[in-house]
Amino acid sequence: MIYSVGRISDTAAMNPSETAHAAVVAEPPSLPLVEVERAVQRQFGLGGVYVPLVSERDQNFRLRTPSDSEYVVKITSSAEPKIVTDFHIAALKHLEHIAVPQVPTVVRTLDGQDSADIEHAGATHKLRVVSYLAGVPLANVQMDHESVRDLGAVLARLDIGLQDFSHAGERPRLLWDLQRATELSELLDHITDHGVRLAVTKALQDFEDFVLPELDHLRSQVIHGDANPGNVLLDPHSHRVTGVIDFGDAVRAPLIFDVAIAAAYLRGARADPLELITPFVDAYHATNPLEDAEIALLFDLLRARLATTITLLFWRLSARHDSDAYRQKTLDEEADAVRFLEAVDAIGRVEFAERLVQATLR
Questions:
Q1: Per residue in 29-80, pLDDT tens?
Q2: I need a surface site. Which of 2, 98, 133, 341 has the fewest CB within 10 A?
Q3: CA angle at residue 254 from 257 to 285, to 5 degrees?
Q4: d(CA 27, CA 56)
């Protein structure tokens, strides 16, 4: 039975494996390294030392060549449609020629293609290589007003760079897509803590009541979709934001979703949950001005992202083995999501919006 308070839309009764990205539910690829090495050498002409990277849906490696050039090798889940992989590649290629923060560069195969195929155990996977971006993840430093303001300006420039980009694969079925937040209701039974389940259900219900009716009226474009601190890189000396990685959650969605998703990770250890969010939103607004209606929805959008994080966290506890590397990585990084949702709830919709409007008045 779906646990709920109030009304949850009919789409919530649908099976998430049918309504969202099957690659999230599927186990990531686990090809033997020797097969990956051979395929990359044969099709990209690259070889060297491989180091595994933890990933939600794909099998990734960091590759250092004998000349000290570095790349990321990606074996895409066979559950991901080819058009979605092509969309991710096209987004990176689009940004190569625009003055935005550094993003990974697509490496072509020896015969000039953007990707190759690699087969294993009867399944065909897309094999991609992109440049490796050096830097310190924002997640590894203590965030302060200066760093989050820099993040706000960088994300705004990235979104401006994507404004005129479109692709046939820009609407993937993705569990992390906030437009599909109510579809997570079937997973709420995995949240074993009754109080947490109530808070998450209320956040999803408020999303349906306050956000869904406004979706058709909001500015929409392709967005990065996951500007969390692990995907934002800093210069190790200046600690200024230099790059953004991992476009695996890119999607056409309301622009304000990109702001809300990033804001949901500006938690820190502070009593006031808005202490880092207000300078971040202010800096974003100064570079890529937000509309009043967009700012008014940030409270419910941020809570919906936190609800998504918490729901999928509990789902992973039951759906993946204890040894699953991404499961443990998520546990380590998202342990404070529940605390942050409670703190945001305590502020309330009215005060939250008033403080953001004050911060962005110019």
A1: 999 999 999 999 999 999 999 999 988 789 999 999 999 999 999 999 888 8
A2: 2
A3: 65
A4: 9
Q: The sheet that has 241-244: what strands, in order across it?
A: 136-137, 232-234, 241-244
Give per-residue burial for 22-59: e unless 16+ CB within 10 Å, then b.
Answer: bbbbeebbebeeeebbebbeebbebebebeeeebbbbb
Q: Are 157 and 100 spatial neighbours (Cβ–Cβ below 8 Å)?
A: yes
Measured CA to CA, the distance from residue 18 to residue 74 in angstroms comes to: 25
Residue from 273, 269, 260, 28 nearest 155 by CA: 260
Residues forming beta bridges with residue 128, ordered by sequence position: 74
User: How far, in Å, CA of 317 to CA of 56, rounded?
Assistant: 14
- List pLDDT tens digits, range 275-318: 999 999 999 999 999 999 999 999 999 999 999 999 988 887 77
Residue 14 has pLDDT above 50, yes or no: no
Cα separation, 77 vs 204, in Å, equals 29
Interatomic CA distance for residues 15 and 13, integer angstroms: 7
**Which residues of 184-274 form beta strands (DSSP E)?**
220-223, 232-234, 241-244, 251-254
Write the pLDDT tens digit of every residue in 127-139: 999 999 999 999 9
pLDDT one-digit tens code per residue, 171-212: 999 889 999 999 998 899 998 889 999 999 999 999 999 999
10-24+136-360 shares its CATH topology with 26-131: no
Domain 10-24+136-360 CATH (choose: 3.40.50.1100, 3.90.1200.10, 2.20.25.90, 3.40.50.11540): 3.90.1200.10
Q: State the CB neighbour count (10 A cutoff) for residue 231.
A: 21
Residue-wise burial string across 173-197, b where 16 or more C-beta atoms lie within 10 A, e elsewhere: bbbbbbbbbbbbbbbbebbeeeebb
Give the C-alpha separation, 42 to 284, whole Å. 44
Domain residue spans in the chain? 10-24+136-360, 26-131
Name the superfamily (CATH) of residues 26-131: Phosphorylase Kinase; domain 1 (3.30.200.20)
For the cut 50, the answer to whether the pLDDT of residue 3 exceeds it is no
